[in-house]
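Co-fold these.
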Amino acid sequence: MSKVIKLKRGLDIRLVGEAEKTVMQMPVASSYALIPDSFPGITPKLLVAQGDKVKAGTPLFFDKARPQIMFTSPVSGTVAEIRRGEKRRILSVVINANAVVEYETFQVSAPAKSTREKITEVLLQSGLWPFIIQRPYGIVANPTDTPKAIFVSGFDTAPLAPDMNFVLKDEYDNLATGFEVLRKLTDGKVHLGLRNGDNGILNRLTNVEQHLFEGPHPAGNVGIQIHHIDPINKDDVVWTVDIQNVAVIGRLFNTGKVDMHKTIAVTGSEVVAPKYVSMIAGASIEQVVIAAGVKHQNSGDNFRIILGNVLTGTKADSDGYIDLYHNQVTVIPEGNKYELLGWLAPRLNKFSVSHSYFSWLMPKKKYDLDTNLNGGKRALVVTGLYDRYLPMDIYPLYLLKACIAGDIDKMEDLGIYEVLPEDFALCEFVDPSKTDMQAVIADGINLMIKELS
Amino acid sequence: METQLRKIVDKIKPTFSKGGRLGFLHSTFDAFETFLFVPNTVTKRGSHIRDANDLKRTMIIVIIALLPALLFGMYNVGYQHFAAVADPASQAMWFKCWWYGFVRMLPMILVSYVVGLGIEFAVAQHKGEEVNEGFLVSGLLIPMIMPIDVPLWILALATAFAVVFGKEVFGGTGMNVFNPALLARAFVFFAYTPKISGEHVWIRGFEKGGAYADGFSGATPLGYINDSVAAGAQTLDFGGTTPCDWFWGFIPGSIGEVSTFCILIGAVILIYTGVASWRTMLSVFAGGLIMGWIFNLVGGNAYMEMPAYYHLLLGGFAFGAVFMATDPVTSSQTNAGKIITGLIIGMLAVLIRVVNPGYPEGMMLAILFVNALAPLVDYCVVQVNVRNRKKRLKTAK
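Predicted complex below.
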C-alpha cells in the first residue's frame, strides 16, 4: 500500500438528488442503440443493414482507420433503423430488442494463461476494445500500441456521482478477471486509484497497484490520478478504462458472453426518487429516466436530461441512448428564466465559490441548481482563480490561451498531453467570464491530433 | 413588479433587436437589460451548471470596496477647504464638510462615467458585442485619483484618452496592458502639468481668493517633504501633519488616496470576497517597507532616514497597492508573479519618491512601469513549469 496522495485544490459541489442505495432492475427495453459519435476518435463503417438479425456481441460497425476494432450490439434482436445525418453520416444504429437476450459466444481462456495477442483478439472481436481509452487525447486505444501503464479510477468525485463500491458490490470475480486481462496488455503496471477511507469491494482487489487519494473533485478523474502517479510525457501512451467496464471485460472472460449489464445512478433534483438502475448499456435514456420518475413531466422543456454528471456530461435528446462510458444520468431544471437584479441580490439559493455570495457559510447545504449561465460571456479577466480548481502542476489559464491561439508548441510545453476537457470542468464552472473552457481544450486536443498524425 | 417590468422590457425589446427600428442600439439596450435582469441564457456546451458569480458581481464588489475611501475623500475635500479658508466652525460639522465635497465631486464622477461609458457603449455597438462592466470600476477610480481642482474638461479628455488608448486599441477589457485609470492620471500629469501640480490643486476653492488661514499652503505632506529635502533641511517638514493624520486621512491629496484606514477597509472587502489578490497587496506593502529600510541603512539625507512605514501611509501608496496594483488584467497573472511584481512596485515607488526630487509621488509611475513588466515576469514563472516538464521527459527516457 502506497502513501495517501492528498489533493487540496478542487471543489465538491453539493447538489440535491443523490441516488439512494437501492438498485432497480430494468427489464429489457424495446429499443437500444449504438452511437458512433459516443466513441471518441473513430469513423464508423457499417456491417449490418436494416432488418438484419443480431445477437449480443454481433458486430454492427467497425472503425474505418483501424478495421480490426469492432463495435458490437449490446442486445439481441433486429436492426430497426440506421439513423443518418448530414452527408449520410451515421448517427445511430437502432436495435429492436428481444425480451430474452441471446449471446454470441467467444472462445476465451483464463487470461493469466493466455497471451497478449489472443486477449487483444477477443477484445476486438467482442466489441469491448473501445472500452480502452488512450492518453493523450482520450480516444479509443490503438490495438498495436503497448501502453506504458494502464490506469483505472475506482471512484468518482463529480456532483451526485455513483458510489462505485456500491455499484460493483457483486462483481468481485469479474473485476479480478478484468484486471488480469489489463495486466496482460501492458508491460508496465496497472494502477487503481481509490478514495482514502473507503473500504469496499475495490480495496480487496490484489492484482493491481492501489493508490489512495484524498481531496475534493476532481480527485476521481483518472487524468488527475495519472498526473500524481506517473505523469504522461511527450510520446508516452497510457491507457485508461472505466472501472465498471473492467467488470464487463472480466465478465466476457469468465463467461464468453458480451453482457453489457451495468448499474447506473439516476440522479438530480428533477428525479422523483433518485436511485441506481441496473440496465443494459445502449438503452434509451428516456426509458431509464421515466423508470426512475421525473418531476414536472408534462411541462416539456423545464428540465434537462444529462448523460453523465452536471459538469462533464452531454445533454441528451429525447431519443438519446446510454453510451458505453457513463455510469450516471442527471436530470436538473432548465434555467431559461430571467432574474431581476440577480447579480446584485444576496441569492441564498445559488451556489458560488466567491465570498460575495454566502454559500461558503453553509458548507453542508445541498443546492438545486439549474442550467442558467448566471451572467454574460466576457473576456477572461480574473486570474489566480482557475489554478485553485485544477490539482495539477499546470497553469490552466496559459494552457487555455495556447489552445485558443492554436499554438501547438506552446500547448505541448504547457501540458496538453496530460489533460482532457473534463479536467477543466471546474475551472469552467467557477469562471465569472463564462468561457466554454472544455470546448476550448477539446478544440486544442483535436488540433494536436490533426497536426501530429 | 418583477413580471410587470419584464413585460415592459419584452415589449420594447424587438425595437432594439437586429432589424428593429432602433436595432443599431442593441448593445446599449442589452447592457441595460442585463443590468436589470440576469439573462435567461442557458448553458450550451460544457458544464451544465455554472457558478452564480459573474463579472457584474465582481465589479460591484470593487465599487463597494471603494466606497469608504470615496465617502471619506468627499468629507476631506470639505474639511481641507474649511481649514484653508479658516472656518473652524464649518470644519467641525462633518456633514457640511461631506456635502461640500460631495457637491464638488459629483460632477467629476458624472463626467468620468458619461465620457468613458459613452465610448465603451459606442465601441461595443460598433463591434456588435455586449458592453463590458470593466469601466464601472475605472470610471470611479479616475476621479478618485485626481486632485479636486482638476478642470472637468481635462478630466473628460483624460478619461477619453484612457479608454481609447488604454483599452480599446488593445481590444477592450481584458486585453489592455496598462491600468486605464492610472493612464488617465499619467495623461493629466504629463499633458497638463501646470494645471494640476503645485500646492493649490489639492484644495477646492483655494485660488479664488478669500481669507486663508495663516501659513496654510495646501501642499500634500509629500510635497512638504520634497521641499524640505530640496532645501537640504536636517529634519523633514510634514506641514504640521502627523503619521496619525496620514493614517486617518486628514491631509490634502488626491480625493481617494488620503485615508489609509478607509483604503484598508476596502482591502478587507476585496480580500474577503477574493476579488483582489492578497498576494499583490501584501507584497507591494512589503516592497515599500524593504526599500524604506534599505534607505534607512544607507542613510544620506533626512528623507532616507525617515521611518520606512511612513511611506506606506503617505500619498497614493496604499490606494495604489489595494486598488491599482491588484487590477487582474494588467497585473501579473501567476501567483509567483504577483509576489514578484508586487515587491517591485513597492520598492520602485519608494525609490522614485526618495531619489527623484522632481516628482514627489512614485506610486503611479511604479505601477505603470510594472504593468509593462508583468508579462515578462509571468513568462519567466511559466517557463519554470515548462522546463520542469521537459526535465521530467528527459529523466523518463
